[in-house]
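User: Hey, quick favor. My workstation is busy. Could you predict this chain's structure for me?
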Amino acid sequence: MTANDLDPSIRRFVAALNEGYGQFLDFGALPLPERRAAAEQVRARWRSGGPAMAATEETVVYGCRVRVYRPAAVAEPQPALLYVHGGGWTMFSIDTHDRLMREYAARAGIVVVGIDYSLSPEAKFPTALHEVAAAFRWIRAGSEACGIDPDRVAIGGDSAGANLAVATALSLRDAGEAGPAAMLLNYGVFDPAETDSYRRYGGPAYMLTPAEMAAFWVNYVDDTDAYANPLVAPLAADLHDLPPTCLVIAECDILADSNHAMAAALRRAGVAVEAHVYRGATHSFLEAVSESALAEQALERSSLWLAARLQGSRTRSAGAPPPSR
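Assistant: No problem, here it is.
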């Protein structure tokens, strides 16, 4: 397959990102702090616009910056989603993913909490996992003050954030603690194996390359022995007693095979799974929602799923703004 098999809007999205990174001379050789700053700059176009929130607040939890998005001013406790941004455990922030979190808040009618967990390689496994789990506990423990219903808290994320979401659910389960009410997993990193989808979609025209993914794994763990740890590579975990899960799978993504495998493994463990494959989509395609009907469709479908899991028949909180492109 070639990049011509991409959805046209997603092809334009990938080309625009590649052009943005191309303005930096030898982007891959830049010192990591400069690469992170450049990525924030390049992705600024894709985080702008979108729904307005009734309120947005920031605080610090377990040493991490946390941002709380409230789509509407509602008196009763609201359901919530703890969203964990992607970036190979190495890049990005709640700023690069600001619009994505606002979209979920507005479309599902829920509070969304984003966490700026510590990045690798400065902070290797399990630092980020401990921080995300602490943020989840903070939401539940302080739910009354936060205006959140402790029994209706989901967890989700994209790419490495989806990995951390599953690992958090596993660690809470194994500790005998109350876990999330649902999981939303967008093109997640679940296993280090280089499968057929790596070979089919492993070029820059498809967003994420095998070399990048290999570097991210090296950044995250001390050595390959860690791959045997199910909290590092959750595809190998015992997945019993995890909450209902929605997977957003990009067809043209090197991680597509492991996402299909994760959906199958969750089903074998008795987990209720809804998985949707988006034809012509690449890794990170949800960020293109301002210009892509395909990303719009995926966000709306997964938001409706979240609303159904967390709010019953309601699809949007009273007074919440409609989604805006």
